[in-house]
TrEMBL record:
Alphabetical keyword list: DNA integration, DNA recombination, DNA-binding
Active site: S10 (o-(5'-phospho-dna)-serine intermediate)
Residues spanning the membrane: none
GO biological process, one term: DNA integration
The name this protein goes by in its record: DNA invertase Pin-like site-specific DNA recombinase
Length: 188
């Protein structure tokens, strides 16, 4: 029987160290961690690795339930998958485990709270953006892809696939940016 820890933060500028230390202090022999949103399971390769690794009698340990997921359905599906493998889930804060029926009830309620919290966060974010727009200070999200480089490469006659490779983005992103640039040029 192994205790396997899973730590997650949503953004790259957040720190995993506190979660990892708590999981190790709880006796987790293996701790997997990642910096990715908990809104869905998409792109959470470390979580997939943990789920693949679980054996009967193992325990998946997380510091808080929202580290496992932000959707009640997703959390319950993860708990179900663990149980199908004969493993169980333990949350450290508040301390609850799926070893008993009461634990299932508490995890369901905590999952619902995590989902509500995500909705509240999104609502506050939307309100903040609206206020910033009203003040004229909202500049939108930071662009992750160098649009000028894409435009320069396109002007040199380089195709979208080669551009995508050059600027390290998907071909679809390159096409989307090129189409946005063309549309804004037409509207001028």
């Amino acid at each position: 029987m192994a205790r396997i820890g899973y730590a997650r933060v949503s953004t790259t500028d957040q720190n995993l160290e506190t979660q990892i230390n708590k999981l190790k202090a709880e006796g987790c022999e293996v701790v997997r961690s990642e910096k990715v949103s908990g809104a869905s399971r998409e792109g959470r390769s470390e979580l997939a690795t943990v789920l693949d690794f679980l054996r009967p009698g193992d325990e998946l340990v997380v510091t808080r339930l929202d580290r496992l997921g932000r959707s009640t359905r997703d959390v319950l599906n993860l708990v179900h998958e663990c149980e199908q493998k004969g493993a169980h889930v333990t949350v450290l804060d508040p301390h609850v485990t799926t070893r008993g029926e009461m634990g299932h009830l508490v995890i369901t309620v905590l999952g619902m709270v995590a989902q509500m919290e995500r909705r509240f966060i999104k609502e506050r974010q939307r309100e903040g953006i609206e206020k910033a727009k009203a003040k004229g200070v909202y500049q939108g999200a930071k662009q992750r892809i160098d649009r000028t480089a894409i435009l320069d490469l396109y002007a040199k006659g380089i195709g979208a696939a080669a551009i995508a490779k050059e600027v390290c983005c998907s071909r679809m992103q390159a096409y989307r940016i090129l189409n946005e640039i063309k549309a804004s040029d037409r509207s001028r």
